[in-house]
Each structure stands twice: as structure tokens, then as C-alpha cells.
Amino acid sequence: MDKRQITARVTKLTWERIWLHLEVKITFAEGADRDSKLSFYLINGLYEPKAKLKVTGIEGDTYKLRINITNPGTGLCLPQGTYSMIICQKKCQMAKAEIAESLVKEMSSASRNFLYGGRAKVYSVTFYVTEGDEGLPFIMYVLAGGRTGISAPVAHAKKGFHPKEELKRNIPRLISLSRWICIGNTGKNISIRVKSRS
Asked: What are the CB-based long-range contacts (under 8 Å, 24+) for 26-33?
């Protein structure tokens, strides 16, 4: 990747139902190739390209991009994972997209949740910013989730229940149950005699 030739910053994020629209400002270094076509890809954490964004227009050095988040061309939703955007030219990666500082405050409101399956499942697209070595890298997190039907456990104490009194009352029974103890995985049992204080 030749970072000196091209830099890319996402300057706008909007939604049209399931369509994600982005505008990316490209800055070319002096002597860079301005004529060859640029391609934009979403890559996961393993650096595998999972979707190609469609260029819908070019205004000066600003590229307008679009992707159907529920079907980026594979017939399936974009897989769960953490994504960044790379810009390629002549099959070579030229840059990794960053977020324009003017867009940082809008990142949280640009995130979307898509409910489906009778509102029991959710497909979530979240944008966030983390400070990198050379700017603010564009990061998109995709998560698919659903209801588990599991509730958090709740302890129901009996009326008049006092832990210390219950422990004292049950000590003889606990001692009786602990007379035989299995040690580790050795398979050996030992007998323990417990003398209670009178």
C-alpha cells in the first residue's frame, strides 16, 4: 500500500432503507495516477474483502458510494464482523479510509438496527471511531442477534430468613455430609472424623 499517493476520508453517511450511502473524499498526492479507476471494498478483521461498494457518481474528487447492507451481491446479509474500507487501483491497495473530523459527531446517529423475524431478531450496523496512528480510521461493526428466552436469575428469600441463624442451625447436618471426601481425580476416599465441641 502506497499511502503517499492517495488518502481517503468518509465525509458523509446516510441511509435509504437498506441502502447505505457514503461519500468519500480522495486526495491525490502530486504525480499520483488520477485517471485509473478506483475500487472500494469492505474488508473484515482477517483482511478478507466481503463486499464491493458501487460507485454511483463522482463530483470532483468526491466519490459517491452505495451498498445494500442486506445483500451486498452474495444473496446474503453482510456477515457479522468488524469492517474497514480499502481503496484499490489497478488491483493494488492504495489507501484505507478514514473518517473526516466533521463527521465524528454524527457517527452514533448513523448507526442502524434492522428488526426481523417477528421483531425477535436484530441485524445491527454500528459505526464508531478510534484514534489510529495516522488519523481516524473508518470502522463499521455488524452484529446479528436475537432473543434467547433466558431471564436473569432472581433470588427469592423466604420471609423471616436470616443467613447466620440458618447456618448455625444446619452445621451438624453439614458436618455429617462431609464425613466422606473424594480427593481430586485420584479415586481415593478418606474418612474424616469430626469432633464437635460440647
From this structure: 26/61, 26/62, 26/63, 26/87, 27/61, 28/61, 29/4, 29/5, 32/5, 32/6, 33/5, 33/89, 33/90
Q: What is the CA radius of gyration of the chain?
A: 30
The model's pLDDT over 4-21, given as tens digits with 9 standing for 90+, comes to: 689 999 999 999 999 999
CA distance 49 to 39: 12
CA 113 – CA 124 distance, rounded (Å): 4
pLDDT in tens, 123-178: 899 998 776 656 789 999 998 887 655 554 555 555 565 665 655 666 555 444 44
Strands 98-99 and 112-116: unpaired
Burial class of residue 124, CB neighbours in 10 A (0-12, 13-18, 19+): middle
Query: Which amino acid would we find at residue 132?
Result: G
Secondary-structure percent of the chain, ordered helix, strand, coil, rounded to 5: 15, 45, 40
Q: How many CB atoms lie under 10 A from the CB of residue 67?
A: 20
Helix (H, G, I), strand (E, B) or coil at 117: coil
CA 105 vs. chain centroid, Å, equals 19
